[in-house]
Design goal:
Shape: globular
Organism: Flagellimonas pacifica
InterPro entries: Ntn_hydrolases_N, Peptidase_T2
CATH topology: Glutamine Phosphoribosylpyrophosphate, subunit 1, domain 1
Radius of gyration: 27 Å
Keywords: Signal
CATH architecture: 4-Layer Sandwich
CATH superfamily: (Glycosyl)asparaginase
Helix content: 25-40%
GO molecular function, one term: hydrolase activity, acting on carbon-nitrogen (but not peptide) bonds, in linear amides
Protein name: N4-(Beta-N-acetylglucosaminyl)-L-asparaginase
Bound molecules: N-hydroxy-L-asparagine
CATH class: Alpha Beta
Distance between the termini: 79 Å
Number of domains: 1
């Protein structure tokens, strides 16, 4: 009854309704075509790393350029530095702790938030690959010391003396004074943190180091700590750190930077804020170096440091770029 009344009132009958719907469908057919949703710009692969590691980014780029994924790119990229005995803060040829042990820290993180890490690992040239095995072959995230080493052998890694003639000589020299102090930049800041985006737009990161030279035996820095030395969130971007690890751990630096990017900051702004947070906790102190490096989902990059001298290396379709981080903390 109500319905009939309404139809009458509105002047619509069932037939009228039908013809209205036919009309509507005709209208739809004649409608100009909806503007196609704009296709997002093609994703451009890119690899970046702390310091001036040209060969490492070139390797990562080689993987990306062949259509490889970002996880393989960062692993293979940082392996170049781990094997390079002239880099005395990463892998083979890394400087020892004060007791003469060469101990390595590394971590890796993929697009799905999976991560693996090794701390205080001895006698293995490629801690990054052991970290990846921890991620992929165990239900754990971090393996330490002897357990990590044992696991590496089980996975087929070979035992190797990580000392070189040069680092042994330096250590013998160091023992004469046994002085442990942090010195800006020359404090062996050659830790490699690498971030990459592949052609699918997926981000991965890796970080590897022998840590601070002549550290107290057993010391672990920020580099293998997820969120401190490295963090990746595939929705947002990634960040990595180099420098005095204790300060990076105190602010969970890389996680902080990724979260700042999530809130809308550019990679550059996020790195600047990260350094400022550290300096706020260290008023009056400037006797240490920290360098942060970040990339966002769009492939924009940024870096910032406490003191001048921090560089980062970028490799994309544009080729190699070396950015000296001119903007450093002045506060
Ligand atoms: C650490 N962050 O073990 C590392 C050291 C470093 O370049 O970055 N060296 O604290």
């Amino acid at each position: 009854m109500q319905r009939r009344k309404f139809l009458k009132k509105s002047g619509l009958t069932t037939a009228g309704l039908m013809s209205a719907s036919v009309l509507a469908s005709c209208k739809t057919e004649n409608k100009p075509e909806k503007a196609a949703t704009p296709t997002p710009p093609a994703i451009k692969p890119i690899a970046i790393c702390t310091w001036n590691f040209m060969n490492a980014t070139a390797k990562a780029w080689e993987v990306l350029n062949k259509g490889g994924n970002s996880l393989d790119a960062v692993e293979q990229g940082v392996m170049i530095e781990e094997a390079d005995v002239t880099n005395e803060t990463v892998g083979k040829g890394g400087r020892p702790d004060r007791d003469g042990n060469v101990t390595l820290d590394a971590c890796i993180m993929d697009k799905d938030g999976n991560c693996g890490s090794v701390v205080y690992l001895q006698n293995i040239v490629h801690p990054i690959s052991v970290a990846r095995k921890v991620m992929e072959e165990t239900p754990h995230i971090i393996l330490a010391g002897k357990g990590a080493e044992q696991f590496a052998y089980e996975q087929g890694f070979k035992k190797e003396d990580l000392f070189t003639e040069s680092t042994r000589k330096q250590y013998e020299e160091w023992k004469k004074t046994s002085k442990y102090e942090t010195t800006i930049n020359i404090e062996n800041h050659d830790t490699i943190g690498m971030l990459a985006i592949d052609e699918k737009g997926d981000i991965a990161g890796a970080c590897t180091t022998s840590g601070m030279a002549y550290k107290v035996a057993g010391r672990v820095g920020d580099s293998p700590i997820i969120g401190a030395g490295l963090y990746v969130d595939n929705e947002v971007g990634g960040a990595t750190a180099t420098g005095v690890g204790e300060e990076v751990i105190r602010t969970v630096g890389s996680f902080l930077i990724v979260e700042l990017m999530r809130q809308g900051k550019s990679p550059q702004e996020a790195c600047e804020e990260g350094v400022k947070r550290i300096m706020k906790k260290n008023e009056g102190r400037k006797d240490f170096q920290i360098g942060f490096l970040a990339i966002n989902k769009q492939g924009e990059t940024g870096g910032y440091c406490v003191h001048p001298g921090f560089t980062y290396r970028e490799y994309s379709e544009k080729g190699h770029e070396n950015r000296q981080v001119e903007s450093f903390y002045k506060g």
